[in-house]
Task: structure prediction
Amino acid sequence: MEYFIITVVSVIVIYLSRQYMGTDEYESGEVLNLSNQEQRSEEANVMKTENDSDTVNLVYEVLRKIGCEPAEEKQIGDEYYVYFNYQGETFLIIAKRDTKWINVYDLWWYSLSSYKDIEEFSILRKLINEENKNGSYIVFYTINNENEQIDVHTKKNVLFIPQIPDIDQYLISVLQYFFETKRNIFIELEKHKVVKEHDRV
Result:
Protein backbone atom coordinates (compact mmCIF):
# COMPACT_ATOMS: atom_id res chain seq x y z
CA MET A 1 0.00 0.00 0.00
CA GLU A 2 2.85 2.40 0.90
CA TYR A 3 4.52 1.69 -2.45
CA PHE A 4 1.25 2.35 -4.27
CA ILE A 5 0.71 5.67 -2.46
CA ILE A 6 4.32 6.76 -3.11
CA THR A 7 3.95 5.89 -6.80
CA VAL A 8 0.71 7.85 -7.13
CA VAL A 9 2.14 10.86 -5.31
CA SER A 10 5.22 10.76 -7.54
CA VAL A 11 3.10 10.78 -10.68
CA ILE A 12 1.04 13.71 -9.36
CA VAL A 13 4.18 15.71 -8.46
CA ILE A 14 5.73 15.07 -11.87
CA TYR A 15 2.51 16.00 -13.65
CA LEU A 16 2.07 19.25 -11.70
CA SER A 17 5.71 20.26 -12.09
CA ARG A 18 5.43 19.84 -15.85
CA GLN A 19 2.22 21.86 -15.90
CA TYR A 20 3.67 24.83 -14.00
CA MET A 21 7.39 24.76 -14.70
CA GLY A 22 7.59 23.31 -18.20
CA THR A 23 9.35 20.08 -19.16
CA ASP A 24 13.01 19.40 -19.90
CA GLU A 25 13.72 16.15 -21.64
CA TYR A 26 16.52 13.88 -20.52
CA GLU A 27 17.75 10.55 -21.77
CA SER A 28 20.46 8.58 -19.96
CA GLY A 29 21.25 11.69 -17.94
CA GLU A 30 21.94 13.81 -21.02
CA VAL A 31 19.81 16.59 -22.47
CA LEU A 32 18.29 15.68 -25.83
CA ASN A 33 19.34 18.08 -28.55
CA LEU A 34 16.21 18.54 -30.57
CA SER A 35 15.99 20.78 -33.59
CA ASN A 36 13.45 23.61 -33.57
CA GLN A 37 11.28 21.64 -35.95
CA GLU A 38 11.34 18.55 -33.73
CA GLN A 39 10.52 20.66 -30.68
CA ARG A 40 7.54 22.23 -32.41
CA SER A 41 6.36 18.79 -33.53
CA GLU A 42 6.66 17.39 -30.02
CA GLU A 43 4.84 20.37 -28.49
CA ALA A 44 2.03 19.90 -30.99
CA ASN A 45 1.77 16.21 -30.05
CA VAL A 46 1.62 17.07 -26.36
CA MET A 47 -1.12 19.62 -26.97
CA LYS A 48 -3.04 17.10 -29.07
CA THR A 49 -2.77 14.47 -26.32
CA GLU A 50 -4.02 16.90 -23.70
CA ASN A 51 -6.90 18.05 -25.88
CA ASP A 52 -7.87 14.48 -26.71
CA SER A 53 -7.97 13.44 -23.05
CA ASP A 54 -11.48 13.53 -21.62
CA THR A 55 -11.86 13.49 -17.85
CA VAL A 56 -15.58 12.70 -18.00
CA ASN A 57 -15.05 9.61 -20.15
CA LEU A 58 -12.22 8.54 -17.84
CA VAL A 59 -14.58 8.79 -14.86
CA TYR A 60 -17.12 6.48 -16.54
CA GLU A 61 -14.40 4.05 -17.61
CA VAL A 62 -12.88 3.75 -14.13
CA LEU A 63 -16.26 3.51 -12.38
CA ARG A 64 -17.16 0.53 -14.56
CA LYS A 65 -13.77 -1.05 -13.79
CA ILE A 66 -14.57 -1.01 -10.07
CA GLY A 67 -18.10 -2.32 -10.66
CA CYS A 68 -20.03 0.94 -10.20
CA GLU A 69 -22.67 1.75 -12.80
CA PRO A 70 -23.93 5.35 -12.62
CA ALA A 71 -27.32 5.49 -10.89
CA GLU A 72 -28.08 8.99 -12.16
CA GLU A 73 -26.40 11.40 -14.55
CA LYS A 74 -26.97 15.02 -15.47
CA GLN A 75 -25.16 17.95 -17.01
CA ILE A 76 -25.27 21.52 -15.72
CA GLY A 77 -23.33 23.87 -17.96
CA ASP A 78 -19.94 22.27 -18.60
CA GLU A 79 -20.11 20.16 -15.41
CA TYR A 80 -21.13 16.49 -15.46
CA TYR A 81 -22.79 15.08 -12.33
CA VAL A 82 -22.38 11.32 -11.94
CA TYR A 83 -24.16 9.64 -9.02
CA PHE A 84 -23.24 6.06 -8.08
CA ASN A 85 -23.39 3.63 -5.17
CA TYR A 86 -20.31 2.19 -3.52
CA GLN A 87 -20.52 -0.14 -0.52
CA GLY A 88 -23.98 1.11 0.35
CA GLU A 89 -23.14 4.81 0.16
CA THR A 90 -24.36 7.34 -2.40
CA PHE A 91 -21.42 9.10 -4.04
CA LEU A 92 -21.29 11.94 -6.55
CA ILE A 93 -18.48 12.86 -8.93
CA ILE A 94 -18.52 16.27 -10.60
CA ALA A 95 -16.18 16.48 -13.58
CA LYS A 96 -15.44 18.70 -16.57
CA ARG A 97 -14.09 17.41 -19.86
CA ASP A 98 -11.18 19.86 -20.01
CA THR A 99 -10.21 19.78 -16.32
CA LYS A 100 -7.78 17.28 -14.78
CA TRP A 101 -9.38 17.47 -11.33
CA ILE A 102 -12.65 16.00 -10.10
CA ASN A 103 -14.75 16.63 -7.00
CA VAL A 104 -15.94 13.50 -5.19
CA TYR A 105 -18.77 13.65 -2.64
CA ASP A 106 -20.12 11.18 -0.09
CA LEU A 107 -23.68 12.48 0.28
CA TRP A 108 -26.21 12.37 3.11
CA TRP A 109 -24.27 9.96 5.34
CA TYR A 110 -25.77 11.39 8.53
CA SER A 111 -28.95 13.32 9.31
CA LEU A 112 -30.49 14.88 12.39
CA SER A 113 -33.33 17.21 13.22
CA SER A 114 -32.48 20.90 13.33
CA TYR A 115 -35.45 21.38 15.69
CA LYS A 116 -35.03 18.50 18.16
CA ASP A 117 -31.30 17.66 18.12
CA ILE A 118 -29.88 21.09 18.96
CA GLU A 119 -27.35 19.81 21.50
CA GLU A 120 -26.16 17.00 19.20
CA PHE A 121 -25.84 19.47 16.33
CA SER A 122 -23.64 21.71 18.48
CA ILE A 123 -21.34 18.76 19.22
CA LEU A 124 -21.38 17.66 15.59
CA ARG A 125 -20.26 21.08 14.40
CA LYS A 126 -17.26 20.97 16.71
CA LEU A 127 -16.35 17.48 15.47
CA ILE A 128 -16.66 18.60 11.85
CA ASN A 129 -14.35 21.56 12.49
CA GLU A 130 -11.83 19.27 14.19
CA GLU A 131 -11.91 16.73 11.35
CA ASN A 132 -11.48 19.45 8.73
CA LYS A 133 -8.53 20.87 10.65
CA ASN A 134 -6.71 17.52 10.81
CA GLY A 135 -7.81 15.75 7.61
CA SER A 136 -7.61 16.35 3.88
CA TYR A 137 -11.30 15.57 3.28
CA ILE A 138 -13.84 18.35 3.76
CA VAL A 139 -16.87 17.54 5.93
CA PHE A 140 -19.81 19.92 5.71
CA TYR A 141 -23.52 20.04 6.42
CA THR A 142 -26.60 21.40 4.68
CA ILE A 143 -29.84 22.52 6.30
CA ASN A 144 -33.20 21.73 4.76
CA ASN A 145 -35.59 24.25 6.27
CA GLU A 146 -38.66 22.58 4.76
CA ASN A 147 -38.31 19.37 6.75
CA GLU A 148 -36.07 20.85 9.49
CA GLN A 149 -33.30 18.37 8.72
CA ILE A 150 -29.52 18.70 8.82
CA ASP A 151 -27.59 16.46 6.42
CA VAL A 152 -23.85 15.76 6.61
CA HIS A 153 -21.64 15.21 3.55
CA THR A 154 -17.94 14.82 2.71
CA LYS A 155 -16.00 16.22 -0.25
CA LYS A 156 -12.58 15.52 -1.77
CA ASN A 157 -10.90 17.24 -4.73
CA VAL A 158 -8.51 14.86 -6.52
CA LEU A 159 -6.29 14.82 -9.58
CA PHE A 160 -7.71 12.38 -12.14
CA ILE A 161 -5.57 11.72 -15.20
CA PRO A 162 -4.78 8.60 -17.27
CA GLN A 163 -1.10 8.80 -16.26
CA ILE A 164 -1.93 7.71 -12.70
CA PRO A 165 -0.86 4.04 -12.37
CA ASP A 166 -3.64 1.60 -11.44
CA ILE A 167 -6.13 4.44 -11.52
CA ASP A 168 -8.99 2.11 -10.57
CA GLN A 169 -7.20 1.21 -7.32
CA TYR A 170 -6.41 4.89 -6.87
CA LEU A 171 -10.14 5.75 -7.00
CA ILE A 172 -10.96 2.91 -4.60
CA SER A 173 -8.41 4.32 -2.13
CA VAL A 174 -10.04 7.74 -2.43
CA LEU A 175 -13.50 6.27 -1.80
CA GLN A 176 -12.34 4.11 1.11
CA TYR A 177 -11.03 7.10 3.02
CA PHE A 178 -14.51 8.65 2.94
CA PHE A 179 -15.56 5.80 5.24
CA GLU A 180 -12.57 6.47 7.50
CA THR A 181 -13.53 10.14 7.78
CA LYS A 182 -17.11 9.25 8.62
CA ARG A 183 -15.99 6.65 11.17
CA ASN A 184 -13.79 9.22 12.96
CA ILE A 185 -16.76 11.51 13.49
CA PHE A 186 -19.09 8.69 14.54
CA ILE A 187 -16.61 7.46 17.16
CA GLU A 188 -16.25 10.90 18.72
CA LEU A 189 -19.99 11.52 18.55
CA GLU A 190 -20.65 8.24 20.35
CA LYS A 191 -18.13 9.17 23.05
CA HIS A 192 -20.05 12.38 23.73
CA LYS A 193 -23.32 10.43 23.94
CA VAL A 194 -21.82 7.97 26.44
CA VAL A 195 -20.53 10.81 28.61
CA LYS A 196 -23.94 12.48 28.47
CA GLU A 197 -25.72 9.29 29.52
CA HIS A 198 -23.19 8.75 32.30
CA ASP A 199 -23.79 12.27 33.64
CA ARG A 200 -27.51 11.58 33.80
CA VAL A 201 -27.03 8.56 36.07
About this structure: The first strand starts at residue 26 and ends at 27.
